[in-house]
């Protein structure tokens, strides 16, 4: 006879992590290696400060958190590629063209290199193409090593694409033909009537829903996350205490075993899914 306890669904327990500044952007390695596949980079900023954080979503450990003297508040992330975080430095709101390209080693938080007057074009994870602007002339394209920033005598890299390990939920607006079906499913499971857009994802046999609703006797909307398994058993249903839509770039992400979301402006929630 089978042990029935083995058939019971594993309820999910969210872990919450707070930071010293609001989370402005969440980045993952789009060309990951084994060491960076579970590493996320958070761009933290308010009106006066800018910091960067490397976070291991499997262990919940902050690998490093600091600012860089080579950056200012006008520094912004370009992307995270093969263990390298790339940043553009801008002169200010009146100068939209980047004046500097900066590379940070994501695992250590060490400055890898700085290129004055260069702009990022694309990378294949090994090589890097940059451009250098010239007054009244076409920009100069340069091929470099991503790890060192040094010019190399090789063909320009082609833009590499690969299936993303991390994904964002699909947004279903109220005008979408599938919206009513999804909203009715959520109402049947939770008793809540969704309002506004619904974000939906599928991961390892689980269904994910991020939705807005009015709590009982409330006049403002709250956000909720709902996770159910293939038998429609609720593994997690948690309200995110916020009635303000996030301005964060990538505030919901998931891979095959983790869900990462912004619960508050300065708080990240990580939910681990059971592994087969």
Task: Describe the model.
The protein has 276 residues and is mainly beta. It is built from one helix and 20 strands. The chain has one helix spanning 179-190; strands at residues 15-18, 23-28, 39-45, 50-56, 61-66, 75-81, 84-92, 95-105, 111-116, 118-123, 127-134, 137-145, 170-172, 195-203, 206-213, 222-228, 234-240, 252-254, 258-264, 267-272. The protein has a five-stranded antiparallel sheet, covered by helices on one side. β18 (252-254) and β19 (258-264) form a beta hairpin. The relative contact order is 0.16. Mean pLDDT is 86; it is low at 1-8 and 243-249. This is DUF4905 domain-containing protein.
Please supply descriptive tags for the structure shown above:
five-stranded antiparallel beta sheet, 2 domains, Thrombin, subunit H, 4% helix, four-stranded antiparallel beta sheet, 276 residues, DUF4905 domain-containing protein, mainly beta, elongated, disordered N terminus, DUF4905, 1 helix
